[in-house]
Fold this sequence. Notes:
Strand order of the largest sheet: 3-2-1-4-5-6-11
Shape: globular
Largest sheet: 7 strands, parallel
Helix content: 25-40%
Number of helices: 10
Structural class: alpha/beta
Number of strands: 13
Strand content: 15-25%
Distance between the termini: 22 Å
Radius of gyration: 19 Å
Order of helices and strands: EHEEHEHEHEEHEEEHEEHEHHH
Amino acid sequence: xxxxxxxxxxxxxxxxxxxxxxxxxxxxxxxxxxxxxxxxxxxxxxxxxxxxxxxxxxxxxxxxxxxxxxxxxxxxxxxxxxxxxxxxxxxxxxxxxxxxxxxxxxxxxxxxxxxxxxxxxxxxxxxxxxxxxxxxxxxxxxxxxxxxxxxxxxxxxxxxxxxxxxxxxxxxxxxxxxxxxxxxxxxxxxxxxxxxxxxxxxxxxxxxxxxxxxxxxxxxxxxxxxxxxxxxxxxxxxxxxxxxxxxxxxxxxxxxxxxxxxxxxxxxxxxxxxxxxxxxxxxxxxxxxxxxxxxxxxxxxxxxxxxxxxxxxxxxxxxxxxxxxx
Length: 326
């Protein structure tokens, strides 16, 4: 049995599809709500679906759990309720870490590239544990993920008991199917495609940095299928433990991304620039690029999907079809 928290969400449901395809019994821990989130798991339903508040009681009575993939979190970078974010992103993670340690169950969890804050050079995106305390997240969400990363690594450094295998993944800018419930946090790829479908040009933020041209802000965009491959590789490689970046290792500009969307949709490259909202100016990452040195050194050898190929796949095989779900 494999438990996936947040298993009806974006990355979690794509992971659920891969785990079910292998024939595993799965338990998803999530809220489905009323906005059609159930469609994310309609093609690959779990053995059981429980709500987050039912999880502690479930763990008390279930002895067949082999691994927990902890994908559940409050992931809005604009979240403001610090108490709710702490309970969900830190305390729940701590509880699962402790339970996996005691029950000898493998534990994999989602961290985030938001932990890196406003740095803008490749060397600052190192996941070397010795650099962890130097990070300065820009928002509450990134800070909460950083706190749990710190707690995990300090426990390891002190020689405290740990799960038999553990790994944290700092997800960069993930895009792909099953993200449609995310509202304002949906990937920029889908946002730009929706703008084109509405007959509008794709809008990009003007640069808020004097030395950076409009549209040249750059992110490490990663196809969701590549994140699932990394997680399944970790599951298949129980000797690997640690905190790892989960990106492609290549920053691409927002202009590159917008052009890729236009080309995949078969539409003219129409780009317009708009001012960045004031609410984002002090917490906007103008550059991200995963340093994959440690992931490669751990033995991960798979190639990553190029941006143009991933965007084409997403648009032509999902967004432009009557059935956009994985």
